[in-house]
Design goal:
- The chain has 304 residues and is an alpha/beta fold.
- The chain has 2 domains: 6-199, Pyruvate-ferredoxin Oxidoreductase, domain 3; 233-302, 2-Layer Sandwich (Alpha-Beta Plaits), CATH 3.30.70.
- It has 10 helices and 10 strands.
- A hairpin with a 5-residue loop joins strand 8 and strand 9 (276-278).
- It is globular and about 65 Å long.
- The two termini are 38 Å apart.
- Residues 206-225 have low confidence and may be disordered.
Amino acid sequence: MLEHAMIEVRFHGRGGQGAKLASRILGQGGFLSALYAQDFALFGAERRGAPVVSFTRLSTEPIDRRGNIERPNLVIVMDDSLIKEAPGQVFQGVDAATPVIVNTDAETFASGLKELATANYRCVDMNRIAQEELTGRAFLSTIAAATAAKCVPAIQAERLEEAVRTEIAEFGLAPDLVKKNLEAARRAYELTPAIDLTATELNAEIPKPSWQAVPYLGTAQFAGPTIRHRGSAALRATGGWRTERPVIELAKCKRCFLCYLYCPEAAMTLDAENFPHVDYEHCKGCMICYQECPTDAISRRLEV
């Protein structure tokens, strides 16, 4: 049990990965384990690939706190590129003792993410679990929730599985996909290193609420770029938001222009022969082009 301590978990992901659902599954798992639970998400425009933050609070006593979690006991990073793109969000309230579980493998973490803020890092390759258990889907909600649940002693594997069934039931998924999500959750639960969040002094100091309407953005420590003239969308490279990418097989393309017309970000360009090409610097991976292509010339690939 939590022994009257509160555990606060913060999920960082991208639109389309299931960060919001991950916090709900964790909250449901806590509720089914006789804990008080609170979960909610923070996001602006619902755009695939945009940074999303979601929160879960668990306690043995009624929860009277409201608002965003600014001093988390656990951080789950569902896309490791957020560490560099949105450090102000990921590392808000994180210190050297805060467990930060990153979706990557240990080798990639050691070679490509050396310049990080100080934290207690652990690696869980959620993408690999998704590729092997969910046939390449980039939806990581059950995997991320299981990773967090492993760190809460009160949530046993059986309660986690019940929470997964309860929360994904409303999406009307086919039975085989529900089964795959359960298998992915079980595997993530087994692979995640046990971090007993109740073994350390938690929430010793309740932080003052942030003055910002949208937290973590524009602070003195993590200032964001400001472009002060019109028509600046091309200057903001949003290709790093993708969880999946469209790939065009030109041999199948009939040049119907539907991908070009339907692309909401104008990330499709036409060459001199009117064949479409993807501007990967600005493609956010919404996959509308994939859905609309009448000749199946566009395939979807998991971003790696």
